[in-house]
Write a structure and sequence with these properties.
alpha/beta, Rossmann fold, 7-stranded parallel β-sheet, 10 strands, binds 2-amino-2-deoxy-6-O-phosphono-alpha-D-glucopyranose
């Protein structure tokens, strides 16, 4: 099962995630980081920067990208990651890979992205958030657990959730390119973070519910190496919260996060 850690707040989660990432990057030749966007990973990127971590020599693959935004749009996931990851962590911008969502590139964007991940040696650590509807990446409910990178249609719920980054919900694209659940499952370690009451139901379903394409985040139960970092509110519907606390309080020093 996933290691579930219930933390005080986003900053503590960010510090733990950053430490786990730094440890893995340090022992990996040509490390590959899987990066997420949205509000959730921000404290992790901040903590990496605060710890003086530099991502020189690290390749990063984004989970997803909107379709239909003009190149360089500030809310395109490429632009977000250039601001929040590349600049503060001293990454070479060419080492940040995002799915090609340009009109000319769409027809084979998934195949090319999958090939690029393979050629880089696969993702060592994948950072994940989770949507209120249980999505990871942009794999909306119903996505095949075996899916690979492809074009998807966003649910109205996801568009409304993400409208805060745009002037209105109508400006949120309807389509995206996202790594599939099968792609995410291939990463060697997953770190899923979630904060706030709005994520509580999705977290409980993903961590403790049945494995189902209806809750794409439940894919984590099929992965042998997962860390889930949640604040009290996001963890408030976990049936086994006391057990997770007991396990973490008694975590042996030899067992890295
Ligand atoms: C977004 C992203 C996901 C993210 C999720 C949660 O739409 N595509 O990668 O994990 O939805 O977003 P947030 O972290 O802003 O709550």
């Amino acid at each position: 099962m996933a290691e579930v850690v219930i933390v005080r707040d986003q900053e503590e989660a960010g510090r733990l995630a950053a430490a786990a990432i730094a440890r893995r990057l340090a022992v990996t030749e040509n490390p590959v980081l899987g990066v997420a966007t949205g509000s959730t990973p921000e404290s992790t990127y901040r903590a990496l920067a605060a710890a003086g971590q530099r991502l020189t020599g690290v390749t990063a693959f984004a989970l997803d990208e909107y379709v239909g935004l003009p190149a360089g749009h500030p809310e395109s996931y490429r632009a977000v990651l250039e601001r929040e990851l590349v600049a503060p962590l001293g990454m070479d911008p060419d080492m940040l890979r995002t799915p090609d969502a340009s009109p000319e590139g769409l027809h084979d964007t998934g195949e090319r992205y999958e090939a690029a991940i393979r050629e880089a040696g696969g993702v060592d650590v994948q950072i994940l958030g989770i949507g209120t509807d249980g999505h990871i990446g942009f794999n909306e409910p119903g996505s095949s657990l075996a899916s690979r990178t492809r074009i998807k249609t966003l649910t109205q719920q996801t568009r409304e959730d993400n409208a805060r980054f745009f002037d209105s919900v109508d400006d949120v694209p309807i389509h995206c390119v996202t790594q599939g659940l099968g792609t995410i499952r291939d990463a060697r370690h997953l770190v899923l973070l979630a904060f706030g009451e709005g994520k509580a139901e999705a977290v409980a379903a993903a961590v403790e519910g049945p494995v189902s394409s209806g809750v794409p985040g439940s894919l984590i139960q099929l992965h042998p190496s997962v860390t889930v970092l949640v604040d009290e509110a996001a963890g408030s519907r976990l049936a086994h919260a006391d057990y997770y606390r007991l396990a973490y309080a008694n975590k042996p020093s030899w067992q890295a996060l």
